[in-house]
Specification:
136 residues; Rossmann fold; five-stranded mixed β-sheet; 5 strands
């Protein structure tokens, strides 16, 4: 595996802030849980490489599971929070799990990122290898 660690202090540059988009909403809990697990693994790869990462799926899945009030799983509930993190980010990475092309949430995240002139990349290949492709 290629070493991705970046020593930002030595380079005297700021770390890249990544908003990690991935599909989540599905009628089956197991599918949602597997998608959240994949997003958590991807976020870990990015963190290990030295990026600053916000993944709304990793963040929201645990809140939905363990909070004391029923948190909606549909994107409309999370959209305003996600918009703030997209504005904060430097780039939008899209984890191309099954269902990403049909995800209303990802479609909205792309629209927001474009509105704020963020670069958008598709994460293709394995989670361990950071293979990013800038979409057309």
């Amino acid at each position: 595996m290629q070493q991705l660690l970046i020593d930002y202090q030595r380079l005297k540059v700021k770390p890249i802030k990544v908003y990690l988009a991935s599909p989540y909403t599905h009628e089956q809990y197991l599918v949602r849980a597997l998608r959240a697990r994949a997003a958590a693994r991807a976020a870990g790869v990015l963190l290990k490489a030295g990026y600053l990462v916000f993944s709304p799926i990793v963040h929201g899945h645990l809140i939905a599971m363990y909070s004391e009030f029923p948190v909606p799983i549909d994107y409309s509930y999370w959209e305003s929070l996600n918009k703030e993190f997209i504005i904060w980010s430097d780039v939008l990475y899209i984890l191309t799990l099954d269902g990403w092309e049909d995800s209303a949430g990802i479609e909205s995240e792309i629209d927001i990122a474009k509105a704020y002139n963020k670069e958008i990349y598709l994460w293709q290949g394995t989670l361990e290898q950071l293979a990013l492709v800038k979409p057309i």
